[in-house]
Amino acid sequence: MTTTTIEQQAPTTTNGRAIGSVAAMNGYVKEIANVLRRSGRAGALQYVPEITWLLFLRILDEREQDKAREAAALGLPFRPTIEAPYRWCDWAAPYDPKTRDAQGRAQGWKRKELNESQMGALKAFVNDELIPTIRKLEESAQHGSPQHVLSQIFYNTPRTYIDTEYNLLEVLDRVHRLSSKSIDNTHIFPLSQVYEGLLLSMGQKNNDGGQFFTPREVIRVMVRVLDPRPSQSIYDPCCGTGGFLAETFSYIVERYGPTLSAEQFDRLETQTFYGREKDALVYPIALANLVLHGIDLPHIWLGNTLTGDPAYAKLFEDAPTQFDIVLTNPPFGGKESKTAQKKFTYETGATQVLFLQHILEELKDGGVCGVVLDEGVLFRTTEGGFVGTKKRLCEDAEVFCIVSLPGGVFTNAGAGVKTNLVFFRKGSPTTAIWYYDLSDLKINKGNPLTVGHFDDFLQRYRLAPAHPGRISPKSWTVDFEARKESARAAAAPIQTKAKELWAQATAKNKAIAGLKAQIRQVATLEARDELLAQIGRQEDEQKQARKQAQALENEATGILNAVYDLKAVNPNSSGTRDQRTPDELLSAIEEAQQAISLAVEALRASRSIVRIGDGD
Predict the structure, then answer these.
(1) Average pLDDT over residues 508-528
(2) How far apart are CA 5 and CA 242, in angstroms?
(3) Cα–Cα dist 279/274, whole Å
(4) Who's near 43: CB < 8 A, 6+ residues apart?
(5) Which residue did the predictor score with more confidence, 228 or 318?
(6) Is 484 exposed, middle or buried (CB count within 10 Å of its CB: 0-12, 13-18, 19+)?
(7) How many Å separate Cα 120 from the centre of its chain?
(8) 85: cis peptide before it, omega within 30°?
């Protein structure tokens, strides 16, 4: 029987049609995932790692076959990342005697040999030879070499978890059909898109990998705002599957690729992208994702970014001490240990706030950052860690843009919180913040957020800060310097009054001390009792003065801290904004609770009367 080579055989959907679109390709990858699900790999964080190493070896093999042919044509030597029989074309590809390598070995020769030996030989080869060999590459590989990175992609893969040889063979055949040469040439797209579709499944609602996934539309907009250049270092301190780094690479290649020299392109691929990730399951996925996007050497550090404790740091050894650009989405709602908090100036259990402090440390002077923050981080001004961090942010960096995102953007990732995009440049204080409001958009499964929703924002953002076109019903500028000055002016008389009261309380100390000294000199009980009464009155007055002074200090502090409520409140909104202060709102809530309690008591009393009447 004649075997068709992969170059001639296009992958097909379940209805037999050739794949010619991204959606169809994503559907095809989903079919592979379905085979893994029936093998017991039910959740995304179970089947994605399995597909990751298989897909990576498939695409690596295809790329290296192309490089081998190019080297042969030029009469140059070529050494593959992994040697036979561990190449995909040896053990995983279907047997094809018409397709042979430079040594004359047929495609799939090792697979044929294993299949003809005994039942289970292929799976045993994968578990006992292939995976252990690749995992040990780090021991002999040069630091930063492709072999070094490949061994780390298998960091959390001790074996294949596919349950039967039958299912393993089906997965191998399906993955083998994923080839850049077999995609409909009228719908060309990179094979990295296949992996994007796979990672998208991790971000879907109720999936166990959503916490590592940021919607690609959000990432693309953030990258456009910061407009990274080839010479800049890019860093993500909680990189998840590497989406920010991969998208930044794609942006730079698309915009600057044709103008780059071979040396500049090599630097872009090997000395530009850096990240940290805490989860050992996601770390290899990030590496594979970045390599598949074209970043030959992604510098990813495995460990707890906030405590600084590494689990594996060799790929990060040559990282710069500070970075030109930070793009990131810190975890929402996380609570960090005291160990992590002690590393920072402003201690708090809030993960996002600690990451914000980390970013300020890691960013160069003049460097820029785009970060996703939940709304609570922006508006909370009653907790020291939040206020101190935001005060430092606004003093050490220029917060130049905040975008209020609509609700529902992160719902598919399991987070229903309201979020914002915050952009800042380190090195000079914040004087004015330009806001853009997208919160009125209704985002759901039927109406997902797209880059098109940001068109007006991007057009206005590109205008000069003082340009009148920056102002619209959805956008406005806050004079931050004026806000601080107004707060200082409002707080000053309160602070003055507080100082006067503290001075009165201090004066009372002297008066009380004098009265106590007199007690030892009086001769009668009546005189002693009178002095004690005076001391009591003075102490009461002192206590009251201190209480009033503290209350005034708290009021002044509240006014000054309110400056760092950075929440986007659209002054052009047609809705009615509640202008009440937090104290007024609390009073209203207490009054409502009292009214409810009275109503409940009245209802219970009426029911009691009814029961008594029914019994007579």
Answers:
(1) 82
(2) 33
(3) 16
(4) 207, 208, 209
(5) 228
(6) middle
(7) 42
(8) yes
